[in-house]
Amino acid sequence: MITPRFEVSQNDEFVVIKVRISNIRFSAKAVEMVADDDKFIFSLPPYYLRLRFSGSIVDDERAKAEFVPNEESILIRMPKLTKGEVFSDLDLPAKLLGRIENAEKKPPLIEEVGETNNLESLAQEAQDFDWEVEQVEQPPAPLVPQFFYGFNNQYSNMMEVSLSNGNDINELSSPDKMDPDERINERLIKENLKFDPEYYANEYLTQKYFPQDSNIKQILCWENPIRIQHKNHSETELTTEEHERMMGLPRKSYLVDNVRPLYYTIVCLLYGYLYELRQNEGELTVESGWTVGKLVPQLSSLDSQLIQSNNKTETNMLRVIALTMARRSLCYPLIRNYEMVTTVWEDVYCTLRCGTKAVLKTLLACRELFRFHDIYYIYCKIWLDDLCSWTLNNASDTVLRNLGHELRKTVAEIKKQEIVFEKILAEDSEELEFVNLTDIEELAEISYRESNAASS
């Protein structure tokens, strides 16, 4: 059976469903429709459509269906059980297809914990998300080690083919054979090796003293459309193409014990994509997938944990994320500028505050960078397909908005002195030294003044 294209709208009394039936001979006798509480079924071979709404519909004498020949569609009006009730998510057709039955109506064999549409519960959920680092007792190591990664840590042994084909996003020496702490350790080492103090100092001095030689000011002044949307309190609109992309997402229900790592990954993906978007002033390039992949530790290092399990000093996961993304932003992209980092975090804030649809729209765009790539597609398989589907069906709008607020406060409290790398600074030394951004800027200023004094 084929799932037809369809659109859903509503008024006070009816849910209006337009089902498109191209290239078949219409026969009224072949049409079957069923309305059962919150479920609607339409059948016209070879088309079959099953939708679940957030409210109940009825099949009575007011129900009506008519064929619109010039549009090759059937227009169906189904009465609402409660007149005036507002059905949610009608502008997200893929979510209507993916809804599962309410657990109270038909208890499943395995219940999904935390599924609720109660607004008070959602508000409490957002309040309860304190974003602290979780202190969990480590389980004993299995006799035969297994190494999982990706969405909800449900994938393993999937990186080998990608690596053999030349996956240059990957930063791990043996991604299929490393535990989370080993991934973090190697990630930190690679960041320290990659960071170039001279590159950062040069960008800093150029922006400050030779702005005519740099386009950084223009990049920082570029206004991301999401900021305009946030400022105007506009509703996020999804295009036909985006709806089609959602139709291609996995249609399954996810049993997630801990949703926090999923929200953390959403934040990192938003940051990576919005960094690349701002770096190119709203455009994307053939290198965009590489840049986003390198920036996001969950992709390049398969690192969903982000902090060592034996770390007892750091308590705020949002701070860990902010510092991690700042470090990576000063190592990999073409533009390595701290003001760029804070500007992109503001873009992330606006996206989160615009709610689930704005977040989903950005994640879908990010997914496109990897979906058809010969090598990078693996990141769709282990992360982006599932995460987009989970965001569509399960992410809490309230939690996302609260996350944006808390993240903004956290980023504002971070100082340049806290962004630290380990480098060998002296040419005749092999000893690693801690160096932060303030140190580098001060050394750059001294060097600049000495250079000016020598030339005058």
TrEMBL record:
Signal peptide: none
GO biological process assignments: box H/ACA snoRNP assembly
PROSITE patterns: CS
Coiled coil: none
Domain CS, first and last residues per copy: 1-91
GO molecular function, one term: unfolded protein binding
One GO CC term, this protein: cytoplasm
Protein name as it appears in the record: CS domain-containing protein
